[in-house]
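Protein chain data
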Amino acid sequence: MAEEKQYEEIAAPQPRGVIEPGSVEYVRDDDGTMSLVAHLTELRSRLIKCLVAVALGSCVGYFFIDKIMHYITLPAGKLYYMQPSEAFFTYLKVACVTGFLLALPIVFWHVWRFFLPALTHKERAVLGIIVPTSVILFFAGLAFSFFLVLPAGIRFFMGFNSAELEAMFSVDKYFDFVIMFVMPFGFIFELPLIITIMGKMGIITSAFLKKYQRIVIFLSFVVGALITPTPDIFTQSMIALPIIVLYEVGYFIVRYVLRN
C-alpha cells in the first residue's frame, strides 16, 4: 500500500496554471485563460529573446561597420569627428540601429505570438497578413527615404557652400540627422495599411476620407515640420508629399477594393 500511495503522488497531475521550468507551452486554466504569472513569465521570455536578437544583430552590424558607414556617408562624402571618442560611439550607435532593424521581423513575430492566444481564428488569419505586410512597408519606407529623399536633402543643404562657407559634417551629428530623417518614413509608409484596416472594420469610409483630404494635406505639412530635424520647407515637403500620396493610396483601396 505504501508503494501504491507513493506512485500516486508521483504520477499526480500538476495543477493547471503552473509553468514547468523549461517547458515550451504555457499551461492554461480550465477556462482557457492564462494566469497573471504565466503572462508575465511569457512576456519576460519573449523580451529576452527580442533583446538577444537585437544584440546578435548589433554584433553583425559592428562586423560590417565599415561597409555600412560607407553607404551611410555616400550622400555627404567625407565626415569629421571633433572629439576623440566621437567616432567610436557613433560606430556603436550605427551597430545598435542596424541590430534593431535586423531583429525587427523577430520582434514583430514575438509580439504577434504573445497576443495570439487571445485572438480568434479569423483574427489570427488577418494578423498573419498584417504583420509581414507592416514589416515590408516599414522597410520600404526606410529604403525610399534613404535612397531617394536623403540624397536630395543632403544636396540641398550642401548647396549653401560658398567662398565663406564650407560644409564640414560631424560624424555624430550627421548620423543623428540620418536617423531623424529616415526613420519617420518607415512609420509613414504604414498609413495605407492602417487606413485599409480601419476601412475593413467599418470605422471609416471612402466618403469620410474624401471629406478630410484638404485637412490631411495641411496636417501633412504640420507633421513634416514637427518630425524633421531642420525647419526648412524643403525637408518638410519631402515628408509631407509621401504622406499625401500614401493617404490617397489608402483612399483608393477603401473605395475601389473594399468598395466601402
